Amino acid sequence: MDFSKTSQLVGAEVEEEEKLDEGYQKTYKKFNEMLPTFPKGGGWWADQLFQYQGFWLESFCIRGSLLIHDHFKPRPTDIILSTSPKCGTTWLRALIFATINRNCYDFCNHPLLTINPQDLVLFFEGYIHHGGSTSFIEGLPSPRLLSTHLPHTLFPKSMTSQDASTCRFLYICRDPKDVFVSKWHFMNRLRPKELPPLSLEKAFDLFSKGVSQYGPFWDHVLGYWKASLESPKKVLFLKYEDVKKEPWVCVRKMAEFLGVPFSPEEENKEVVQKIVKLCSFKNLSNLDVNKDVTRMWNRPVSNSDFFRKGQVGDWVNDLTSEMAEILDQITKEKFKGTGLSFD
Questions:
Q1: Calpha distance 173→130 (Å, rounded)
Q2: For residue 332, what are the contacts with CB-CB under 8 A and spacing of at least 6?
Q3: Could you tell me which of 19, 26, 16 has the C-alpha nearest to residue 135?
Q4: Is 91 exposed, middle or buried (0-12, 13-18, 19+ CB in 10 A)?
Q5: In contact, 331 and 218? CB cutoff 8 Å
Q6: What is the pLDDT of residues 289-331, one digit of tens each?
Q7: pTM for this structure?
Q8: I need a surface site. Which of 152, 166, 231, 298 has the fewest CB within 10 A?
């Protein structure tokens, strides 16, 4: 695959109906009829959010979900990297790409050194739009690596059943306090200049009520957590904090889950450690490609926007103790009896 061209396609919209194939035309028509009926919520960025099947999404993402439902044909080799926004998506993309393709590239001349991870593991609900049909997605070689923020419950059963022919999901979550702070900084960086900054208090009120991109955050996490318990061979559930603490352990776990465990020879050559070093925040954030601040109409997020601090516990620099207690209490109540916690 020519990775140098993929960045030109991010966020590609189909603006002319004649560019859509017949099946896509029907889905677009259905979407246009449904959208006005959905509850609306304030956007963090610029776009309005709509409540769809219990989650708050931008209209583009709802349409992407419908296109996946109606037209995507999964393969048993498909690998779907799933996250709620600001939970380590860029890092997970890099780690999985490097792990799956470890026999294809030398570490001294690796695609990750010159290409942002988002151009190597493509945004599913965005790219499903490209070309007005599934031709682009269908043309990707196996194993297809796709990244998504969609909740597990919004995927069709053809992708989420325990059948051996369905794809696999890797999910990473994070302490909601760090998620919220990271999201707040990220969205303020992207807000149009004509809009005032989104205050911490306003953002906190929205997040606490579940009104944020792909939120409620807690419902998003629980959907994948429950799926991982029901289908452990199909859904691997990771915590950002665990990956930060012992990245090599988590890389081995991911490789095992994907059916490509590291051989004794690879262990002797310290391939795991090389992958961890290549994909570290320090390394990726200091690469020229990831310092690029260019934003375009079809790519409103620059490469540099995906890198801020990547730290555990950074929330202490922004949240009051009362805010932290509120989020901790919500988490405790939401996760009660599930076996999941961030303690």
A1: 28
A2: 341
A3: 19
A4: buried
A5: yes
A6: 766 656 655 556 656 556 566 677 899 999 999 999 999 999 9
A7: 0.90
A8: 298
CA-to-CA dists, residue 89 to 65, 173, 304, 313, angstroms: 19, 9, 14, 17
- pLDDT tens digit string along 62-104? 999 999 999 999 999 999 999 999 888 989 999 999 999 999 9
For residue 336, give the DSSP letter: T
Q: Kindly tell me if the per-residue pLDDT of 17 is higher than 50.
A: no
User: What is the set of active-site residues?
Assistant: 149
- Residues 147/94, Cβ–Cβ less than 8 Å: no
Contact 72, 166 (CB under 8 A): no
Cα 214 to Cα 226: distance, rounded to the nearest angstrom: 17
Query: How many whole angstroms separate alpha carbon 142 and alpha carbon 144?
Result: 5
Alpha carbons 284 and 278: distance in angstroms, whole number = 7
Rounded distance between C-alpha atoms, residue 16 and residue 13, angstroms: 9
Placement of tokens 């260019």 in the chain: 294
Alpha-carbon dihedral angle through residues 159, 164, 165, 171, given to the nearest 10 degrees: 40
End-to-end distance of the chain based on CA atoms, in angstroms?
A: 42
| Locus of tokens 């988002």 | 118
Query: Is 64:280 a contact under the CB 8 Å cutoff?
Result: no
Q: What is the pLDDT of residues 128-150, one digit of tens each?
A: 999 999 999 999 999 999 999 99
Where are the strands (E) in the chain, listed by range?
Answer: 40-41, 49-52, 55-58, 79-83, 122-123, 145-148, 168-173, 235-239
Kind of pairing, strands 122-123 and 145-148? parallel
